[in-house]
Amino acid sequence: SFVLTQPPSVSVAPDRTARITCGGNNFGRKTVHWYQQKPGQAPVLVIYYDKDRPSGVPERFSGSKSGNTATLTISRVEAGDEADYFCQVGDGISERVVFGGGTKLTVL
Amino acid sequence: QVQLVESGGGVVRPGRSLRLSCAASGFTFSRYGMHWVRQAPGKGLEWVAFLSHDGRAEYYADSVKGRFTISRDNSKNTLYVQMNNLRTEDTAFYYCAPTRDDYNYFFDHWGQGTLVTVSS
After folding, report:
1. Tens-digit pLDDT profile for residues B14-73
2. What's the rounded Cα separation, in Å, for the pair A15 and B69?
3. What are the pLDDT digits (tens) for A44-74?
4. Element (H or E) spanning B82, and its range?
5. Partner A, chain B 96-115, Cβ-Cβ below 8 Å
6. Nearest chain B Cα distance for residue A27, angstroms
7. Which of B45, B104, B111 lies closest to A99 in CB terms?
8. Which residues of B touch A49 (CB under 8 A)?
9. Separation of alpha carbons A49 and A42, rounded Å
10. Chain B residue whose CA is closest to A104
11. How many CA atoms lie within 13 A of A54 on its CB side?
């Protein structure tokens, strides 16, 4: 079965760049989506189709994918970016959705 | 705007049943496939089930297959999940979410979730 692997935690100083990776065994044609979740809140979509940004999400958030690794990049990190981040793939061909284990972003 | 309101959660003993509902508004419910996603307290997200807009296609996570049944009533703009033979590991917040892409599933709208606690 398809597995997405994320580092449990990433720490970054304010105003620096955070990169959160998501490793897959074979992305193929699958696209990767990213969610931000703050304590006590529902997840919020921040990147879809590998690199597209929903309206309202700051341009500081970007996504990329190369080979078996997708990356969420947050530029000029702010204290308010501290949250859990989850990657996700899913489609009607595989008939399932898979989430990564999540990465806790800490702003130092 | 899109609104999703989950309800029906509560405390239930192992082996018992529970039905959750998700009332949707702000979009044409009958045109969207719908998913249930859950999250155990302090843990990550886990996909549970999918139902196509017309109810013809339904998919389940292996962890719930044979125990959970997803359904919908398009006349009431409501999604359901019937959960039978509940286990302690089913304890989680349950979220419903529409998917606007019939091929690549992602979730740009979430409800606030309803908490299911399975405990003796």
Report:
1. 999 999 999 999 999 999 999 999 999 999 999 999 999 999 999 999 999 999 999 999
2. 47
3. 999 999 999 999 999 999 999 998 999 999 9
4. strand B78-83
5. 102-108, 110-113
6. 13
7. B45
8. 104, 106
9. 20
10. B44
11. 15
Pairwise CA distance, residues B57 & A59, whole Å: 36
Say what the pLDDT of residue B62 is.
Answer: 95
Query: Can you read off the two tokens belonging to residue A14?
Result: 């304010």
- Check CB contact under 8 Å for A92 and B106: no
Instruction: Say if residue A14's pLDDT is above 90.
Output: yes
What band does A91 get if pLDDT is binned at 50, 70 and 90? confident
A37 DSSP β-pair partners: A84
Residue of B45, B61, B104 with shortest CB distance to A86: B45
Is B104–A91 a contact, with Cβ atoms under 8 angstroms apart?
Answer: yes
Amino acid letter, residue A70: A
Q: Name the DSSP class of B104.
A: B
